[in-house]
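Table S2 (text version). Query chain:
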Amino acid sequence: MSTDYTFLKACRGEATDYTPVWLMRQAGRYLPQYMAVRKNVSFLELCKTPELAAEVTIQPIDYLNADAAILFSDILTPVEPMGLKLDFVPGPVFENPVRTQADVDALRIPEMEEDVPYVLETIKILRREFEGRVPLIGFGGAPFTLACYMVEGKGSKDFAQIKRMMYGAPELYAQLMEKVTEMDRLYLNAQIKAGAQVIQIFDTWGGIMSPLDYERFILPYTKKLIDGLDRANVPIIHFVKGSGTMLDTVAKAGSDVMGLDWHVNLGQARDIIGPDIAVQGNLDPTVLYAPKAHIETEVKRILDENAGRPGHIFNLGHGILPTVDPEHAKFMVECVHRLSGK
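Corresponding structure-token output:
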């Protein structure tokens, strides 16, 4: 039965025979197989072509022997049909960022089956391909991270525009966040309906706030999103990059699994979070540049920090870097399996 996958057991906090492992951004630029597909299409075309998106989702499972696959897509995919023109140069850029009341009013809530059918079709293809082999993770951005891109128009070092709105026009910020949260809820539920067996919520920029402001301006919307998901037998993973100083607050969002970046000791984080939430992480992605002996040492350290507690999924503390040697990523997965008893 699909519910017996080791990865899903770990998400539920159940005992497993070994520690399951996958890598954030495991379908991507570090793999020659991916680049061979990518050279013929733009990034957006790849996201919007189900057969190709499915192909690059499958590639790292064949190569790495990871315990879960993650849908190849982008967190901003469902934002574009809200009325924003998206491009990648190579990072995401919105030509018309959201700054005013009129901008927020103009945002529409997409009809997922009509506006992003390619995402749902990719999921259906992958469920057929992976049946009995590995579970499929669907994903989306957390409302705050999506709003950051929408308001800033692109990535940022200081996030001045979103913070200006948050502090200076809190009612406008709240209206934007309500719309984004509802879009996100519909999008992730459509993924679940299409067959996603786990959902990961990426809050890449959640850690830019102080713990107090995180609790005030971000947590309510993430919690509302998670509470609104069709979670029967579908675990939710919540990853907030840079959240090491506020793990107890992030835990209030209500996910089944918390993703941890590499700035925290995994064992100490588990003590703070408590036994009822599983954890995912948390190898520094740059360790994959190191010699294999060092990679093995670091894998063992993290497994030792977990101290055999159920509910641990091994992963990097953020996405795999594009210049990493694929053999080192494969070796890391082998180490996790071997050292944890597979």
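Notes on Table S2: Residues 27 and 258 are 21 Å apart (CA to CA). The longest helix spans residues 170-194.
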